[in-house]
Amino acid sequence: MSSGTGVERTEPGAAQGSAAVDTAHELDLYRRMLLIRRFEEQVYLLYLRGEIPGTLHQSQGQEAVAVGVCDVLQRTDWITSTHRPHGHALAKGVDLRAAMAELFGKATGCCGGKGGSMHLGDPSVGMLPAIAIVGGGNTVVTGLGLAFKLMKTDQVVVCFFGDGASNEGAFHEGLNFAAVQHLPIVFACENNLYGASTPFHQTSLVPDVASRAPAYGVRGEIVDGMDVLAVREAAGRAVAEARTGAGPVLLEFKTYRFAGHSRGDVRGYRSRDEEAEWKERDPIVRLRERLAVSLSEVVLDNTDAQVEAALDDAVEFARQSPLPRAEDALTGAYATVIGKESTP
Amino acid sequence: MTVAAAPANGERRLTIAEALREAIAEEMRHDDKVFLIGEDVGVPGGFGGAFGVYLGLTEEFGHDRIIDTPISEKAIAGAAIGAALMGMRPIPDLQYADFLFECMDELVNQAAKMRYMSNGKLSVPMVLRCPVGTANRGAQHGQCPESYFVHVPGLKVVCVSDAYHAKGLLKSAVRDDDPVLFFEHKLLYGSKGREQAGGMDLTAHVPEEEYFFPIGKAVVKREGTSVTIVATHMSLYRSLAAAEELARDGIQCEVIDPLTLLPFDEDTIFASVRKTGRLVIAHEDTLTGGWGAELAARVAEECLYSLQAPIRRVASHDVPLPVAPVMEQTVVPSQARIKAAIQRCCEG
After folding, report:
1. B215: which chain A residues are within 8 Å (Cβ-Cβ)?
2. A107 shares contact with chain B (CB less than 8 Å)
3. CB B145 within 8 A of CB B154
4. Cα angle at B126 between A102 and B191, to 5 degrees?
5. Total domain count for chain A?
6. Per-residue pLDDT tens digits for A276-322
7. CB A54 within 8 A of CB A116
8. Tens-place pLDDT, residues B36-80
9. What is the pLDDT of residues B227-261, one digit of tens each?
10. What is the Cα–Cα distance from B158 to A10, expressed in whole angstroms?
11. What does the alpha-carbon distance between residue B310 and residue A224 come to, in Å, rounded to a whole number?
12. Spatial contact of B221 and B253, defined as CB atoms under 8 Å apart
């Protein structure tokens, strides 16, 4: 529905009852969201145990956005992601074992151990190594869109970014350039209300990122990011527009990260009441309840068990995988080194 | 890729601007993945880029391949990088190298690192042309910022000073799979810099037939046995002019144009220093942390026992650039300063 400002707002729950996907498809959406949730929970424990080096930015609570958006993409479509990329990677189809091994810093990781948590990605499934500079993807994504336009393919690219990125110059330059070139891009803002610890309302006088879209001649839409079916429906429309040359589109998903910004964040900047309110809207719990109407508990429990088994397998794979060769750190920065092929 | 022999004296002489235009046109004809993107590059009735290098190209290649953009350097660089990641070969243009600082994230965090972070699955084949150099434009339109980028693994940095190498290197850069920053001096595009360059002819022989000059290879512009001078852009021509003067005093300068600053052709320079035992480095980039410091360090590490005198650097003084010509010429390396440095180096 139109709010009269050029920004549309899909009411929470509007997609409930939509017949856009059948029960088997809904069950698959549930399975994929649960996989992300359990992946995040598992890797946090593995991190605490010292098996995963570095740091982690986790996406518990935001699974519906990753899964709902990527569900309407083709394998040949692309996404760009952020410092919080685990969910996007798994949703776009990065191999679970290779993703886990990458977090472990193993040679079998999807980036050979050179990327790690913040640069998870795999070009073979249409995901750039995640760009961990806030707003960094918002300009690079225009080049993917421009290439698809120049090569006359019907591919689209989705740029995931957070509310924090919307105050970066890159957000504005990328959106304006994409608009003026009519590029096949969906800008997908995950507004989880906080840039690290700072509330979005302290950083912007306009409460909705989507309301910036009309200023660039772009359609903006606010979507319930805690409802995977609503996400899927809005993303489906936006991707279809982008694919047919009517893009770009800016979607703003209102969502919430249940975890802290990164490891060791005790979330002192937000109230437990607020967290409880959002957890009431847990996208995985909501979809499970909806599925329980038509499916037996046994079917759902079996799905949960499949997810656990896949994760156990991935963790074991990562543990057993070899470390990268130390000397490989010194190669791979260049495609050609004074006429010699580098061996990444 | 074939490497042409050193330019002979032939009938066809071009300016750098003409040579660059010819290189771009040839590469655009050769590969439809090559395209231009930037500010004022193809506007009908416009400038053909800030320095006229693209004049006439839109008529041949059209607006699909010569893409005018907003004044939006982050978007231009981002668009070029993203398109390159998808297999295109963009030539982005920001008008002045000073504006590179507007898109440092795209260049340093994205373009330079995507290949490494993806473990070699991606590459960023693009050439960013960067006009540099003092020309009475003051502090924000005359810098020579190439040294910033010499510090970035994943980038390649080229500095061209004559039409022959400009064309051969630009063609190699377009076909290279890595991101190349291609630095050109504004006073060397045509013949306007002639007087300041010591009255030298800034056109060069450019063969009609196709040729390439490899990235990562320096050229000896003048052979000599007394002292090695490594210099780029205007400093190269001032060094050559100083060398002419010093030859009358019996000082035979070997003048080398490094052409590529990253990766650096150490072999050519080390061989020269081992022969002459003396090294002077001249560049218009500022002194502190300039690429001359890196070269001096490498020569000290590898050729110290060949040196008969301390290495001397001549660079712009460590101040922003002023406009008043008398002040500006005090800041940048003049022929007199370069000559004095060479003489001092040869005294030791």
Report:
1. 338
2. no
3. no
4. 150
5. 1
6. 999 999 999 999 999 999 999 999 999 999 999 999 999 999 999 99
7. yes
8. 999 999 888 888 888 889 989 999 999 999 999 999 999 999 999
9. 999 999 999 999 999 999 999 999 999 999 999 99
10. 52
11. 69
12. no
Contact criterion met (CB below 8 Å) for A181 and A146 = yes
pLDDT digits (tens, 9 = 90+) for B288-327: 999 999 999 999 999 999 999 999 999 999 999 999 999 9
CB A54: neighbour CB atoms within 10 A? 11
User: What CATH number did the domain enclosing A166 receive?
Assistant: 3.40.50.970
pLDDT at A23 over 80: yes
Unique residue bearing structure tokens 């795209």: B106
Q: Is residue B283 flagged as an active site residue?
A: no
Has domain B219-347 been given CATH number 3.10.50.40?
Answer: no
Domain housing A27: 7-341
Three state DSSP letters for B84-130: HHCCCEEEEECCCHHHHHHHHHHHHHHHCCHHHHCCCCCCCCCEEEE
Q: Which residues pair with B68 in a beta bridge?
A: B38
pLDDT confidence of residue A119: 97
- A2 inside domain: no
The confidence score (pLDDT) of residue B202 equals 81
At residue A16, the pLDDT reads: 43
Residues of B in contact with A161 (CB under 8 A): none
Task: Output the six-digit token pair for B297.
Answer: 């360090």
For CATH 3.40.50.920, the residue range(s) in chain B are 219-347
3-state secondary structure of B247: helix
Q: Is B222 helix (H, G, I), strand (E, B) or coil?
A: strand
Query: CA-CA distance, B44 to A186, in Å (whole number)?
Result: 31
Q: How far apart are CA A244 and CA A237, in angstroms?
A: 11
CATH 3.40.50.970 fits B13-205, yes or no: yes
Residue B290 contacts residue B258 (beta carbons within 8 Å) = no
What pLDDT is recorded for position B9? 55
| Mean of per-residue pLDDT scores for chain A | 93
Task: Using a pLDDT cut of 70, give the percent of chain A over it.
Answer: 93
Task: Measure B78 CA to nearest chain A CA, in Å.
Answer: 4
Does A54 touch chain B if contact means CB atoms closer than 8 Å?
no
> Helical H runs in B118-265?
146-150, 163-175, 233-247
For A:246-275, CB contacts with B below 8 A are none
Per-residue pLDDT at B8 exceeds 70: no
- Summary mean pLDDT of chain B: 93
Number of H helices, E strands in chain B: 12, 14
Residue type, B107: L
